[in-house]
Amino acid sequence: MTDFKNSVFQGRSVLAEKDFTAAELEYLIDFGLHLKALKKAGIPHHYLEGKNVALLFEKTSTRTRSAFTTAAIDLGAHPEFLGANDIQLGKKESVEDTAKVLGSMFDGIEFRGFSQKVVEQLAEFGGVPVWNGLTDEWHPTQMLADFMTVKENFGHLKGLTLTFMGDGRNNVANSLLVTGAILGVNIHIVAPKELHPTKEIQDLANGFAAKSGAQLFITDDLDEGMKGSNIVYTDVWVSMGESNWEERVKLLQPYQVNMAALKKTGTPDDQLIFMHCLPAFHDTDTEYGKEIQEKYGITEMEVTDEVFRSSYARQFEEAENRMHSIKAMMAATLGNLFIPRV
Length: 342
Ligand code: CP
Ligand code: NVA
What we know:
By secondary structure, the protein is of the alpha/beta class. The protein has two domains: 17-139 and 322-334, Aspartate/ornithine carbamoyltransferase (Rossmann fold, 3-Layer(aba) Sandwich); 161-229 and 231-266 and 273-311, Aspartate/ornithine carbamoyltransferase (Rossmann fold), CATH 3.40.50.1370. It has 13 helices and nine strands. The strands form two sheets. It has a five-stranded parallel sheet with strand order 7-6-5-8-9. Strands 2-1-3-4 form a four-stranded parallel sheet, sandwiched between helices. Helix 7 (199-212) links the parallel strand 6 and strand 7. The chain is globular and about 55 Å long. The site of norvaline has 8 residues, from helix 6.
């Protein structure tokens, strides 16, 4: 008889990449590619028929919220959005009590917010799978989409070199460093010394890299850091919850992804792509963009409009893949699928 509990993913939470093996992450990536093919072919995949999932958002979101919502509906589940001002979480009710209540009504819980501890507590007390939709520390569902996009473009992962340039201490940089290290993708972090990943994150990544063979390189030298990259990746200079624009603009202007930076890779055009988790400041068509132009006289931040609109750019495929990969993750952890080993 099928023992669902012995399925590799059934009932598991996805809180941080470090909790998964390379084979498990690759399984979820490949499952995402499969579900994308089903979606494009119009083939239904209602693995979560009758389930209810709660979507908790302390921070704002376009992609993650949309991806969880549409993925849940495609899987036959009902998604319920619970925004920062809608529920008592943390203000009038402890995380533990909230988790117990939500876990008694919902079959799965997504959480986007500040503290990693909160998402961990939701998982500890909720009794249902909890999915981290971004915290100050990690962005694991972004990683599933990102490495799915890389695999779509290159056909494989191991041995490729992904260079993240920008705020090397943020959640996306942390996640790329650790996930690449697990998967055997070489990761370069190019950032001013002040914004290099913490020792704790570097130690964690080095441990995984020793097993996978990934080469990790953290530097403030653009020439050295860019060399040999297949994927050049960047993210906003100031993340949600931060407001230190002046300091970041000053520190990170030399680390903007522009055509000159891409040239430094020395990589042939057909072996080089640009990625960005989005949202991006590549012009002045946003309130922040306009404010930064007025204050600091720059019209582009982490990436130039030229690169953003170039043939290297894959950020919109990457954004779409959030939906397919989140679908894979929810189905695998909640759908009683027969996945006895990976
Ligand atoms: N990349 C990403 O997480 O986008 P949102 O903040 O719009 O969800
Ligand atoms: N580092 C960014 C990622 C947004 C998807 C932030 O936390 O705001």
